[in-house]
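Here comes just one.
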Amino acid sequence: MPKSLTHQQHSPGDHSTQEMDRSAKLSSDSGPVRHIRLRASDYQGGRKSDSVIDFNYKPAPFTLRWINGYNPRVNVINLNHEGSTILFYAAANCGVLYNWTARQMKILQGHKHMVTFIAADAAARWLVTADSGPENIITIWETRSIIPYKTIFSPHGYSKLAKLAFSADAKFLLTMAYSEKAVLHWWIWTEGLNQPHAIKEVTVQHNSVINIKFNPADSTQFVLVTKHELYIGVSGKRISNERGEPRETDEYELKVKLVENTAGPEFGRVSCSTFVANTCQILTATTKGAILVYGYTLEYSDKAVPMTYDKLKFVKVVKVEKYHINVICSVDNMIVTGNEGGEVRFYDEHLLLLYWLHGCRPDAARWLSFNLDERSYELVSTDSSEIQRCPCWESVVRETDPATGAATQRLVSKRLPTDATTAARPFLVRDFVLCK
């Protein structure tokens, strides 16, 4: 059975009216061969529409038009921006861009093996697909044109690709493979080189790395997270000493440091991690519902300035849930988790519970991906009949903010859900996609 993708406010719907192409070959003694493309929906009622005839259509047996299902082991990325409704996910040996309102697919082909990693930058302009079989490749695509701008062949030689990360500013690519140790390759892909700009070996157990991730606020910083440990790393120009004076060279290097923690085995193994925006904190979640907090200071500091990477330290561990946490992310000044019990919970910066998902309890919340843009809204206190709560997000009538020009939703305060604080403030968060 194919896995399912669920939007928090809108589902992809029934695909029974998907376009099904048929080609009819018409020939005559004196005329050329022509092909007619018909859709199954155009035969409803026994009538065929002439508007779908395409005389230039040439059927090809190996041209993919539609893929059912997706790879649940690969993350799903929400590319919704300024009203678009596009998901990016992996299916078989392809990447897929799916517009669920238009029911259209753009399929990114070129991989010999199953696509095991996908990524995108913060602006969703660049996409990355990668496979991990023999002779594996990494392809970087431009979103609008779906043109492969860069392909890296066998990024780790004969070793299979194990992990991949793409920086939020689309400047850097970080890959990892296992040899005698875990080997990191750091790429400035826009320079078009076929060799990494920096290489670093890290001593970890084989197959123990959970993920590698760039800091969205500082693309020179990254983390490598294993089942029990966290490594902080930085990239930069190599410094050499000439005549006793430091001098920056043209070569790059990676520096990686283990950040030790004192969390016991009763809190479980690490399952996921995230950088917390505007705080310089790093959070890792575990298989027993705990969150490990790393930071540069023992006390919470809003909008803290990051220090050198070797100053990062383990702060504390907080038990927040009873289920295995599959995903943790930072969005709109909140920490959001999805666990094996199907719960989606929202916490403030101090890990105090603000809200939890109501009316939707999937078997498990495996992936969460939020819209690229923050929700633009205006709260009104009146309960005028002209302002109605929309049952579907597609029906929301948006106005324009005169100051920013951004689309704005008018929302009635008392009709909104409230958070779990004593102030009972209206709870709002940008739209997101939940994968189960």
Summary: The domain at 70-239+248-375 is CATH 2.130.10.10 (Methylamine Dehydrogenase; Chain H). Confidence is low (pLDDT under 50) at residues 6-55. Residues 1 and 57 are 33 Å apart (CA to CA). The first strand starts at residue 5 and ends at 7.
